Amino acid sequence: MNVRFMLLFWLFVNVVQAKPAIEERFEFYDIYPVSKEDIRSEIKQRTPLINQGSRFDGRTLWQVAWQYYRKKSDDLCHITKNEITLKVLYTMPAIAPEFSVKPKVRDAFDSYYQALLNHEQGHTKIGIQAATAVEQALLNFNGFSHCQALDTAVNKAITAIINSHHRQDEDYDRQTGHGKLQGVSINNP
Predict the structure, then answer these.
(1) What is the phi/psi pair of residue 49, to 5°?
(2) Ramachandran area for residue 23 (φ above 0: left; ψ -120 to 50: alpha; else beta)
(3) How far apart are CA 95 and CA 31, in angstroms?
(4) What is the reported pTM?
(5) Backbone angles phi, psi at 120, to 5 degrees
(6) pLDDT tens digits, residue range 124-179?
(7) Is the torsion defined by CA of 124, 37, 47, 95 positive or negative?
(8) Which of the residues 8, 16, 101, 144 could staple to 105 if both were Cys, CB 3.0 to 4.6 A apart?
(9) CA 117 – CA 49 distance, rounded (Å)
């Protein structure tokens, strides 16, 4: 097989199968439990995650950032390249680093934390699906006679994709009881 052909094939496969870049960050709020029973009250008392009077233990915020490049040729404006990044921010509880706890308190918290993180990563999966759908939409756009019309169509399509996936996030929380049905409970260490 021709080396040049193999290189072109490899480049084509990588472009077609490109996945959005993912940037994950964690922010923690400190808790100070003395016993296993204190973990729940500490989280409830110290969580900064309050929405419409409800307190939440953890949160995942995701945002799809996109950039595309366009070119006008043969009287058509078309997308030549795109870059998609999924930015994810987790806000999670943590036993304060300077606070010493008994091993059974640490074990109970660690089990709880892992279940909560697994739930929150479900939100990230929805974000990944959104970023992938945005990338696929950009790859599938046909040429437009005016670049402004292309920009308008792209923004409308991407907004619809993002809104749809944010609704999936809400459904996910409803279906899982904000993770309780997935084992997110301090009573299940």
Answers:
(1) -95, 90
(2) beta
(3) 5
(4) 0.85
(5) -65, -35
(6) 999 999 999 999 999 998 999 999 999 999 999 999 999 999 999 999 999 999 99
(7) negative
(8) 101
(9) 15
Q: What is the DSSP letter of 52?
A: T
Residue 64 tokens read as 């799809």
pLDDT digits (tens, 9 = 90+) for 66-85: 999 999 998 999 999 999 99
Residue with the two structure tokens 């949160």: 59
Encoding tokens for residue 156?
Answer: 């409308």
Distance CA 81, CA 66 (A): 11
Three-class SS of residue 160?
helix
Give the H/E segment covering residue 50.
strand 50-51
CA distance 101 to 60: 27
From CA 154, how far away is CA 134, in angstroms rounded? Answer: 9
- CA atoms of 181 and 183, how far apart (whole Å): 6
